[in-house]
Write a structure and sequence with these properties.
The structure is a homodimer. Chain A has two domains: 41 residues, Orthogonal Bundle (Arc Repressor Mutant, subunit A); 75 residues, Alpha-Beta Plaits, CATH 3.30.70.920. Helix content of chain A is 39%, strand content 29%. Chain A contains five helices and five strands, in the order αααββαββαβ. Chain A has a four-stranded antiparallel sheet with strand order 3-4-2-5. In chain A, α2 packs across α3. Chains A and B meet through α1, β1, β3 and β5 of A and α1, β1, β3 and β5 of B. Chain B binds a DNA duplex through α2 and α3.
DNA sequence: GCATTTGACTTTATTAATGAAAGGAGTTAA
DNA sequence: TTAACTCCTTTCATTAATAAAGTCAAATGC
């Protein structure tokens, strides 16, 4: 179903999703229309879920990038889930996990002060373990 | 420097980075050329770091998505770093962290068997704690 | 206070890409 | 052998991108 050419298309689009079909075609040795129908198929199949940009969060004023392992005291997760719904601006991802904790929360903050405020509020709904990202 | 219109542009492109400049312009109430120069500036400033796609890893045969907290025994991280360089196909991100562990490794695997093999090999270079993602 | 500069935009015109349609080559199956 | 199918290329009409020129308003300087 998905052949090598498709994999190369996915690779190229991962690196630059704004390539024209002509440029993309050149990279995988196909014409524009040929690669265009392949991309359309990958979209229909749901292999390509969407097109996005990588934003430099530091340049937007988010200097702290953190992962927070969430340990809810009770089996009732709703208060925590409601809380993070209200804190959307700081949340990148909230993964439900098995292992150490219930959730793994990826977030960004403008400063340690705001992170601190966030943690204080979070602590009313769950316990946590904090990991701050130093480098990628 | 970055005004409200720029934020809206970033938002729109985050949701769909393949919008034409004309379409994008319509969404933020500008003409194509106007929005095009704004996007070019955001690129020059490094706010937009790149254009990418969201790939459905399950449809590519990667059924297991995991975060692995890495605890290296020694201060000498090189063996671990060399190891993951060889395992690129499974690695999504390797974050250097402060907190619980030295690194937080985000990865994907076709099956638990392959994850198991990976962990066995990993164990020669570092200790770990495994968190498997159940849901986003 | 007025002229000038600057920056951000629109309009226009040229160039380039997209997308639809037709046609060809290779493969499979009756 | 022929028919049907898939995947591709070529061609062409439509649409978008891009460069250049012009407009306007706000800021700057004399």
């Amino acid at each position: 179903m998905i052949d090598n050419t498709d994999m190369r298309i996915l690779n190229e689009l991962s690196m630059n999703s704004r390539l024209t079909m002509k440029e993309l075609g050149k990279k995988v040795h196909l014409t524009g229309p040929a690669v265009s129908t392949r991309v359309a198929k990958l979209e229909e199949q749901g292999v390509i879920e969407g097109y996005s940009i990588k934003v430099n969060q530091v340049k937007l004023g988010y200097f702290v990038h953190a992962f927070i392992t969430i340990i809810t005291e009770s089996t009732y997760h709703q208060p925590y889930l409601s809380f993070i719904k209200m804190q959307k601006q700081y949340i990148i991802n909230n993964y439900k996990i098995s292992g150490d904790g219930c959730y793994l929360l990826e977030c960004k903050f403008p400063s340690n002060e705001i992170l601190n405020d966030f943690l204080n509020d979070l602590n009313e709904h769950a316990n946590y373990k904090l990991s701050i990202i130093i480098d990628i």
